[in-house]
Amino acid sequence: MTEGIQRVCVVLVDRANYGRLHPVMTAIKADDHLELVTVCAGTMLLERFGLAEKVVEADGFNVEGRVFLEVEGSVPVTMAKSIGLGIIEFSAEFQRLKPDMVLLIGDRYEALAAAIAAAYMNIPLAHIQGGEVSGSIDESARHAITKLAHLHFPSTARSAEFIRRMGERPDTVHNVGCPSGDYIRRLDTDLPGDLFKHVGVGGNLTPDQPFFLVIYHPVTTEFGTARQQAQNLIDALHTLSHQTVWLWPNIDAGADDISKALRVYREHNEAAWLHLVKNLSPTTFQKCLKKARCAIGNSSSFVRDSTFSGTPVVLVGDRQLGREHGENLIFVASEKDDILKAINFQIEHGRYPTSTLYGDGTASSQIVEAIKSFVPYRQKSIIHAYSSS
């Protein structure tokens, strides 16, 4: 390591992680005072999720570490076991790579494993998107990471306030906005006409015609209900039979039930309107979200990233209950009729004005400057008085 240069280890645990961290990684890589170290883990390394690691490398980033931690099964006990395995494997990688700081984002259980490993190894930990209300077990993981982290980059003013109320040092809390906005605002919506001939399976969709974008993940605190919830969503979309791009769910408990509902539907229906995709590059995904006639499901991308483009969103179920959102979003129960009514309303309404709720598109530069000026400390303690400024 060159004298005076900080090695910042960015941990990527799923496709959404990378989409939001891509601009931060670019900014770190371009800075003469920082050295980017990339570790791919979790579903980033799995073929059935599109081997997102390969997208990272294609974008010009070296992957210095790989952590295989996912215990197969997609049930609550495999999630818990994956955390334990992740702590062991992240500890080994951090020992080998010797970073000066570990940078994490969000609320994934894989990220929690990395946070525990870094904290117990006395490695300063920076956390993006802390303080948010997100529902499911993910919210607990998010707040646990916050209490392990030494440097905080919340995406909204309310989130920053929540972190200070959790007793974190006010001088370590920087409301920077969501990094995905750094490039979403500048993106056009040009997509190759043959895009869906090369990625995914199903109907031969044409990106130059209006389409829906769907992502539906299991709600871990409602384990056992995912199959029926997914079926209700499928039934609603079947009624409309509007060309639809559907990204496969994540690996959380209940994901296999959602996947099964999709497979059974395709076996018994021609479904020319439906195209299933494992993964899209961050830029392609954001172009699809920006261009979509309506985004439908329960992905956090539909909550935050859509604010930068004004895409109409129908948020289904309780997975993102309590999240801050723009006026472009409607919450509905995971019932067929409710979903249909909301989709039709959003189609009639059309696009919404863009919002600065999740920042002004300068998050990455602010994060880099805060990392460079950060004075490391190990001992954390609850701060009784905090500023709400």
Automatic annotation (TrEMBL):
Source organism, top-level taxon: Bacteria
Family annotation (SUPFAM superfamilies): UDP-Glycosyltransferase/glycogen phosphorylase (SSF53756)
Matching Pfam families: Epimerase_2 (PF02350)
InterPro entries: UDP-GlcNAc_Epase (IPR020004), UDP_GlcNAc_Epimerase_2_dom (IPR003331), WecB-like (IPR029767)
Name of the featured protein: UDP-hydrolyzing UDP-N-acetyl-D-glucosamine 2-epimerase
Signal peptide per UniProt: none
Occurrences of domain UDP-N-acetylglucosamine 2-epimerase (ranges): 27-372
